[in-house]
Every structure is written in structure tokens, then in C-alpha cells.
Amino acid sequence: MVTDNTRRTLLKAALFGAATPWLPFGCATTRSPDEPALVGCAISGRDDYRVVVANQWGSLLRQLPLPARGHGVAVESKLGHAVAFARRPGEFLMVFDFHSGEMLKLITAAPNRHFYGHGIYSQDGAWLYATEGERATSRGIIGVYDVANGYQKAAELSGFGIGPHEIIRMTDGTLVVGVGGVHTDGRTPLNLPTMEPSLTYLSPQGELLDQVRLADHHLSIRHLAHDGDQTVLCGQQYRGEPDAYPALLAMHQRGQEMVSLKAQPEQWARFNHYIASIAATDEWILATSPRGNCYGIWSKQSGELVELLPLPDASGVVVKDKQFRVSSGAGSVILQAHPFEKRAVNSNVQWDNHWSAIS
């Protein structure tokens, strides 16, 4: 098995090797190259972790050091604020101004709490919702932070399960949580035979609106996206038999059953039991797998896998200007609006985990 340190060494060699030439991005080039468009966590060296603000091509505009490895980033474009969350089980969240690069606040977890790596702002930007857990039990918590009051914690929402990971917001303000269902000691799972993952819908006040499950309880629901309308996409980490390769992506609309996306078992095997980032347009769904060093594009209408592509340490994906932008731990940035039409550049940033778009 390749260790994390070995993988990072190989990726760094790829990152600072031969540069990929810059390619034109059509209408996307009308934006200023100094305009913040993307933000994500990155690795700069051994135990050197950053959060990076980039332009539309993934070129670094400014960066801030992080106390430890980061994971997801929440963005509030009207305020110019962003929040970097520590990788689970995380000890911090860091608020910063993405225009100036100034750190505004560093919040550390209480002794009996940890962060799960993701968060989202409310529609009006007044509240920050962060996925958290109770250390001894992995009891799921959504921490609610008052933005105007210096990000003071105002409430905790709970009662929906254990091990929440990503949280997103629908267009009507409804919160959707990928509840992994796994009780852990650090990163070691303790309850795989009895884990209970779910896709959970909450009101902004924490009322449980809906909760649905996949047939295979070993599919830990972790990463989420929505299509700008009513469809939620969820990506899973499979915690069952190592030689089984079930579907790792599903889509859902409130009041309906979950629908698994389609691919052949050997194609699912390429994803190495793990989906990281997801994004969707009206027609297409794109999902990455850093463990599988690949990403796939599915037809939203048919649910069929249309294209499966290699990408070293495939990490974040967002939709910006109706096009997918995909990041890589090897520094590549892929721009792709449709299957079989990708363009690539080298950003010289060793991207890590997820991207968020700045509107």
C-alpha cells in the first residue's frame, strides 16, 4: 500500500515537473485574472498546510497558513468571508477575508468536541453551520455560529445520527447533511457492523424534515452537492467487503426514493471505494476520487457514467460559469463543460480535498 507520505512525494514531483501549457477558456477569460473565484485547502510541504484563494484558472492570488491539514471551505461572498475547516477529527475552523487574505478569527474545538471538515453559511449570511461531533460517542452536532457577533457559538442542532460530514444548503434555505453513521476513535471506525448512514434534511432551526437511507448500510454518506434546483447528489465511502464494488453515487429529491447512479463494477472499482467532491449542472454530474486518482461524469437524465478519466489525486470540483473546474493534488486544473471536451492547466498549487466557488 502506498503511504500518504509516499503519495505526497510523488504528487509533489508531478506538481513541479513539466508545466502544462495554458489553454484558452473561451468566454471565461473575460474575468479579471486578479478576481478571486476559487478557494480551497492545499499542501505546501511536509506538515505545511494552507488555504488558497485563486482566480478562475486556479492560479494563486493569496494564501494563509493553517494550524493543521484543512478540508472544506465555506464562502460568504457578500461579506467577503470564508471559513476553512480542519480535516476530521478537526480541532479548528479559521475565518478569513478572501479579498485581503487577513485572518479574522481562529476557533478551536471544545475538549469534548471535534469538527468534521465542512460547513455552510445561511442564505442571509447571518449564521455559519458547521458539522461537529461529540468525541466519546460521535453524536452528530451542527454548530450554529453568529456571524455578526464575532462567530460566537449560538446553538447546537442534534438528534439526527452520528458522524455527520458535509452540509449543504438548498435554494430555499433547507439544510442537507450527509450523515456517515460511523462511530470513530480518531479516524478508526468502531461500529461498521451496525453503522447507520443517512441523507438528512433539516430546517435552519434544526427541525428534522426528512431522512432517507440507502439499502446497503455499509455505504457511508459523506459528500454532497445539489443541482441548483431540487436534486441532491450524495457520494459514499464504502465500508464493507474490500472486493465488492457497489455504486458510490446517488441522487435524491424530497419525497422520493434515492436513485443510485450507474456504472460497471470494474468502473466503480476505479474509485477505490471513495467519492470526494461532487458538482452538477442541468445535464451532467461530476465526482472525483483522490484515492482512485480519477473522476467521472454521469448523465443526469439517464444516470449512466459517460466518461471516466484519470487525474492524480483528483480533489475538488465546482461549477463556475456553467463549467466544471476540477482540482488535483498534482497541481492540474481541469475545465470541462461537457464530456470529452476537457482543457487542462498547471496551477502550481498542490490542492487538497475540496474547492468552493466565490460568486
Automatic annotation (TrEMBL):
Lineage: Bacteria, Pseudomonadati, Pseudomonadota, Gammaproteobacteria, Vibrionales
Pfam families: DUF1513
Protein name, per record: DUF1513 domain-containing protein
